[in-house]
Amino acid sequence: MKSSEPLIVKTRLSQKDDIIIHPNEGYDLGIMNTKNPVKIFGNTTIETFNNAADNFFEGHIVLENNCSQGTVELNSKYWKKIGSPDKIRLFYEADKILISNM
Questions:
Q1: Which residues constitute the domain of residue 91?
Q2: What domain count does the chain have?
């Protein structure tokens, strides 16, 4: 499982169920495509993440050059749902992303 460095969270109300990161962070996670479908898990156990059985929603991880390095952009409703963290860390494996509060 690959992980990002701690990322500063930026939010947008109008944003869909996408996680937007800079391509350099995508490289750290082993993601090379611009838009990747993923199962998104927020603040859940490793067992739930590994089993990919429940407590997730489907979205995309998107690599955008106009996203500042060291930041991640999330939908503001989802950001509030996971506890409104200032920083998060992303863990990526296959088609799954785990969002962990810092």
A1: 2-101
A2: 1
